[in-house]
Design goal:
α8 runs antiparallel to α10. The protein is built from 19 helices and 15 strands. The radius of gyration is 45 Å and the shape is elongated. Helices cover about 60% and strands about 20% of the residues. Among the domains are: about 210 residues, P-loop containing nucleotide triphosphate hydrolases (Rossmann fold), CATH 3.40.50; about 140 residues, no CATH class; about 30 residues, no CATH class. It has a 6-stranded antiparallel sheet, covered by helices on one side. The chain is an alpha/beta fold and about 550 residues long.
């Protein structure tokens, strides 16, 4: 429900503020006073595009703000999905700068225009030329039938199944495409896999082979150097070990002479132990190192094959080659199991297709069963609105599964006796279309989410009892929904809970539009002027009072 609307610096509006009734609010005013301008501002609030031409004062920004009560609208999930703070009272603000830059806010959080447009669709339903065009669209007509037949559950089940079908279709198509590519590459992948698997690659093998190659290539020199060092260690007269033994005896003598040398002796012993370990290790290495040209050739050959494959595949390590081998093995496996995989995917696709067909047929039955009731209800309402000879027919054609079901429908309409019902765009005049749309919105008020309805001169072309019938229907709608009606008929305006008057103020340099909430006496005078002109007679004033008493 719209609690308040504020508009500043928009078109002819300098400042405007209104707080419509929770029930039925009427807006009247002279032609060109700014009633349609207000609707334009509301459209901006609901996500319509804008430019700098909307600015009254070009050096100031335009601000439009609406405060909505949304506690009972079930919008928590939408706010959560859009990462917006949910509050029972929602403030929507639209700002347009002098440069034409537009900004939108929901509860002071900046949002994209698409988010504002989606949120606006939950909050207000504005009867405009756009709605007239929308009524002619098959998807909108389907939504009317679904709401009228209370087929929401069937629609949800069908849409979930159709979404699963699309997913299965996409998966099958992608698998088919992949299968073609795999088949094309099958022989090449098999060749490359065999080339890699023949080597029997092992993790860390390359580093080990390169280390062994380095030793084998220098084996003779390594053995020579080790033996030279061992001789320095082991010489009986001048060897390092002989000298170290003598130093050890000296350290023991020093320790006996003075305990201060104990630490020095311990340090020496540690060095002595380390040197003996080095000498033993050199001996072991000398024994292990062999001059083996055959083994060296084997290692060189294996490393050469590894290097060639690395260069061929553009990798730098044996681990990357092993990962490539795993990928190729997977591709080869997929090719070998393509038939089975495709058969499984096709079976899933067919199952989802059958489910869509079954649910689509169930939805179709529900829709078809509601056609007669929908047609009869609309014709009855239209008769009450002065269109006694109107005829409504829902034309149906089965189609292949789509996002909205397996049905194509078109609302055919005839306003005159003896005329065959035709598509709306071919037969309905502006006034007839307005009454048809009003009848539909009245019929659907309790079945579709229409929190606040705005009717812009929907009573054009009607008068008398028909106008009273229409406003009576508005009052019925307003018992459960907020209704704002822009009207030029006094018998309609007199039935509102509140009455706003829009007028032009020429007291300043620029003409501006203003709005005023009329009290009881002002309402009487305004209704009398609508009945009899600028200088209403006493009888016109009495007639106005009578309208307010109804």
């Amino acid at each position: 429900m719209l609690k308040s609307l504020c508009i500043s610096n928009y078109a002819l509006i300098d400042q405007l503020h209104m707080q419509p009734s929770p029930g039925l609010s009427m807006i009247t005013g002279e032609t060109g006073a700014g009633k349609s301008i207000m609707l334009g501002a509301v459209g901006l609030l609901l996500g319509n595009r804008a430019d700098t031409k909307v600015l009254l004062h070009e050096d100031k920004k335009c601000v439009i703000e609406g405060v909505f009560e949304v506690a009972s609208y079930g919008l928590e999930e939408f706010f959560d999905r859009k990462e917006l703070d949910f509050e029972p009272t929602c403030i929507i603000r639209r700002e347009i700068s002098s440069t034409g830059k537009s900004r939108s806010f929901v509860n002071d959080t900046p949002v994209l225009l698409d988010v504002l447009k989606t949120l606006g669709s939950f909050l207000m339903d504005v009867h405009s030329q756009h709605d007239t065009l929308q009524l002619g669209e098959g998807s909108y007509q389907l939504s009317l039938i679904d709401a009228f037949s209370q087929a929401q559950e069937e629609v949800e089940h069908y849409k979930a199944a159709y979404k699963a079908f699309q997913k299965a279709q996409k998966a099958f198509n992608e698998l088919n495409k992949k299968a073609v590519e795999l088949q094309k590459e099958a022989d090449f992948n098999q060749f490359q896999l065999e080339e890699l698997s023949t080597l029997g690659l092992k993790e860390n093998e390359q580093a080990e082979l390169e280390s062994t190659q380095e030793i084998l290539e220098n084996a003779e020199e390594i053995k020579l150097k080790i033996n030279e060092m061992l001789n320095l260690f082991q010489d009986e007269q001048f060897g390092i070990l002989q000298g170290m033994s003598q130093i050890q005896h000296g350290m023991q003598s020093l320790e006996r002479l003075a305990h201060v040398f104990s630490t020095l002796k311990e340090r020496f012993q540690a060095v002595n132990i380390e040197l003996k370990d080095i000498e033993e290790t050199l001996g072991d290495e000398e024994t292990r190192v062999e001059v083996d040209f055959e083994r060296l050739d084997e290692i060189r050959d294996r490393l050469s094959r590894i290097y060639q494959l690395q260069k061929k595949h553009g990798v730098a390590s044996i681990e990357e080659l092993m990962e490539l081998e795993r990928e190729l093995a997977d591709k080869v496996f997929q090719v070998q199991n393509l038939d089975e995989t495709l058969a499984t995917a096709k079976l899933e696709l067919e199952k989802s297709r059958m489910q869509v067909a079954d649910l689509g047929k169930a939805l179709r039955i529900k829709r078809l069963e509601s056609f007669q009731g929908f047609q009869s209800s609309l014709e009855e309402l239209l008769a009450g609105l002065g269109m006694e000879n109107s005829k409504v027919v829902m034309e149906h054609k089965p189609i292949e599964p789509s996002a909205n079901g397996m049905d194509e429908i078109e609302l055919l309409f005839s306003a005159n006796k003896g005329s065959s019902p035709q598509p709306l765009k071919k037969v309905a005049s502006g006034g007839e279309f307005s009454r048809l749309l009003f009848a539909i919105k009245y019929l659907m008020a309790d079945k579709m989410a229409m929190p606040t309805l705005i009717f812009d001169e929907i009573d054009t072309g009607i008068s008398g009892e028909v106008a009273l019938k229409m406003v009576g229907m508005m009052k019925d709608i307003s018992l459960k929904h907020q209704v704002i009606c822009i009207t030029h008929l006094p018998q309609v305006a007199g039935q509102g809970d509140l009455h706003y008057f829009v007028y032009k103020d020429n007291s300043t340099e620029k003409t501006v539009s203003k709005i005023k909430l009329l009290d009881q006496d002002e309402r009487v005078l305004e209704l009398a002027k609508m009945i009899a002109g600028a200088s209403p007679s006493a009888s016109a004033i009495e007639s106005a009072k009578e309208l307010l008493r109804r």
